[in-house]
Amino acid sequence: MNTQIKSDPTVFVIFGGTGDLNMRKLAPALYNLYLDGWMPKQFSIIGTGRTKYTDEQYRQTLLDGINQFSRSGKADPVKWKAFSESVYYQSSDVKDHESYKEFGTRIEKHAADWKTKPNVIYYMAVSPNFFPIIASNLSKAKLTQDTKRVRVVIEKPFGHDLESAKELNQLLANIFDECQIYRIDHYLGKETVQNIMAFRFANSLFEPLWNRNYIEHVQISVTEQLGMGERGDYYDGSGALRDMIQNHLLQLLCLVAMETPINWESDEVRNRKVEVLRAMRPFTADDVRNSTVRGQYAKGWMEGKEVPGYREEAKVDPQSNTETFAAIKFFVDNWRWQGVPFYLRTGKRLHQSASVITIQFRDVPHKVFPSETSESWAQNRLIISIQPEMSIRLQVQAKRPGLDMILNPVDMVFDYKGTYSNQTPEAYETLLLDTMMGDQTLFMRGDQVESAWELVMPILNTWQNKKSLSFPNYSADSWGPESAEALIARDGFHWFTLPLTSKK
Ligand code: NAD
């Protein structure tokens, strides 16, 4: 959470400084923070990667990325020049521990020039198998000791399963204090996601209704039209459960289900979230059979173009058992949520790209109006659209204008675009600023990550050990396999889609 107080002088060391993430997200985010006046007066960005670049060449590649991907459009030449004077490049292999001394020398030089010890943020925008190597080499070069000023940002994926996540946590804990570790889940930096907490805890209206007495079920859908692109090799070793459910979707669930924190301290908020994960019902073998669905897309057509099936995608095993779709029913076993199902679904090559949370309230206890007055009766719903639309809608029943008494659902809408004229910052801007300010609220704590892995492990193990005989089982441009419809239909519900339909 930021106010317009600037952080202390800061040095960013970005491992993976020539990679896709830095080009598309990190560099544009830092530049936009600069444009909006959030960067400290003294800062330095040291990109590092294997490619050989001079500082000047590196600045040019970042500029190309910014011109292409920044939310503020093409860089202004004067402002870019001023910003880029603080950008440097160091070509090195992360395995070469000698090169870390060079980082130390550069940081010391900045400290001497600025006449103060800067914050130092090591950002690991590299393949996860390098996380332990970088952490160990930083430690060997004695670059991690200042627990107040030195921070490390770890990109996703954090572990491949519970065991590897524990191992990585242990390794990091041997080197860093937990207050230095920023495990990033960029979903948590999104405006609409942060607004879930504002909506719940800054209004008196919703909290009394926010429980099993008034809420019938919750749906969280994160759907994508995209297929694999260049990511086939990474994704084939991961899948929808690891790539999306274990982190992004479970984090959204935590925000919906958490208890009210006492204050906005980062540990207080994170304690409330981890309590949700600890209260979630563990999966038995029967639950995995009855409450989970996996899918893999077949070839088909999307927006008039023929697209390959998952097994035909580049760098994907033609016999792959990896799921590109998952739908899972979760329960949170505590007083607030007992018996309320949380349906989570995510997938690729689906009909639409959207991230939406829908909270469906219970029906009225007694229908006063005769059935012919309700053309399309729908229970009250709170619909939180995270992307592409950024809005919160409360769907209520209203009388249609006219002499007849006809009821139908209407939306009370809070729409970001309509309400605020200024541009919304990107999630990475929020999160990078938080790392500078030393605010860990929106980052995952070690126990949070482990609890999320623990929850999904029985599903992961079953899916891995038992090859699906039905793959591929959904066509491109659909809403996933039919069994996903059956999963929710068995409980008398249906998946809400965008634009939202009101079947029930
Ligand atoms: P990438 O393959 O585009 O970039 C990898 C970077 O690592 C390059 O800068 C390369 O020079 C560097 N590198 C590779 N081997 C090296 C070595 N031996 N020594 C020094 N540098 C080396 O990868 P990416 O897409 O930027 O992803 C980086 C990390 O961020 C991954 O963990 C990924 O899961 C995560 N991530 C990426 C995105 C994204 O949109 N690209 C989104 C979320 C998370």
From TrEMBL:
Domain of life: Bacteria
Glucose-6-phosphate dehydrogenase NAD-binding domain segment(s): 13-195
Keywords: Carbohydrate metabolism, Glucose metabolism, NADP, Oxidoreductase
SUPFAM superfamilies reported for this sequence: Glyceraldehyde-3-phosphate dehydrogenase-like, C-terminal domain (SSF55347), NAD(P)-binding Rossmann-fold domains (SSF51735)
Pfam annotation, one family: G6PD_N
GO biological process: glucose metabolic process; pentose-phosphate shunt, oxidative branch
EC number(s) reported in the record: 1.1.1.49
Keyword Translocase: no
Sequence ranges assigned to domain Glucose-6-phosphate dehydrogenase C-terminal in this UniProt record: 197-495
Keyword flag Oxidoreductase: yes
Active-site residues (renumbered): H248
InterPro entries (alphabetical): G6P_DH, G6P_DH_AS, G6P_DH_C, G6P_DH_NAD-bd, NAD(P)-bd_dom_sf
Binding residues for substrate: H186, K190, E224, D243, K348
Gene Ontology CC annotation, any one: cytosol
Catalytic activity: D-glucose 6-phosphate + NADP(+) = 6-phospho-D-glucono-1,5-lactone + NADPH + H(+)
Signal peptide from the UniProt entry: none
Family of this protein: Belongs to the glucose-6-phosphate dehydrogenase family.
Function: Catalyzes the oxidation of glucose 6-phosphate to 6-phosphogluconolactone.
PANTHER family attached to this UniProt entry: GLUCOSE-6-PHOSPHATE 1-DEHYDROGENASE, GLUCOSE-6-PHOSPHATE 1-DEHYDROGENASE G6PD
Name under which the protein is recorded: Glucose-6-phosphate 1-dehydrogenase
